[in-house]
Please model this.
Amino acid sequence: MKGRSRPKRTRLRAQSKSRQRPTLSQRQRRKLEDDIGYRFEDEDLLTHVLTHPSLIDEFEGGARFSNQRLEFLGDRVLGLVMAEWLSLKYPKEREGYLTRILHNMVSGETCAIVGAQLNLRDYLFVDASMRNNETGNFDKAVGDAVEALIAAIYCDGGLDAAEKFIKRIWPTNRLPADPQQSQSAKTKLSDWCGANQKPYAIYEMIDRSGPDHAPVFTVKARIDGEAEAIAVGRSKQEAETAAADALLKDLTHD
Model:
């Protein structure tokens, strides 16, 4: 026998309450804003920053419900600020080198590191399954929230405010102190070819020996019309790097 159902008005009130957007307490908001170093004029923006898309279905939200649109914008703002920052910091480096650093500095991993500094994991609004299974997906959610946060600061206070936040909190220890030391032999060889108007190096694997658990790769690196070098390594990449290093030393030997 079925139990008596609740009155319609009670059911509607319960449904309405269950779909109410999650929010921060004033204490949480002030603590987080202190850590961020920015006070929002539009307090709703911070709520959007912390709302993960896993809640969209649960709360019957639309495209503007979660932080996805802010994440999209924040990724572009971060890229712009970081590109200018790196251009000024490394005025003598080539575009390819700057691009490699840029990719590292705006990566999801770096954003997640920033999010960990702010303890954003403790503030995110996510569904129960994600909250109970804190896997790598949670780290991605934290990184996405950082990009959303940058966009929110940009929308609330302009580009100057977003730039100040990024430059204050971004982990500069991920920047190479000496650009030349951070470049691989293959990159240095490519730069040499470009500077000397020579064709770029070609890498050819000429042998693979040894057992499957400990293979040895032999690779030839050559620049047509110039020189070539052969080296070995425990992986194809290691062998190519060693061959590039040997070839570069031969080309630059006085």
Q: What stands out?
A: Residues 80 and 116 are 23 Å apart (CA to CA).
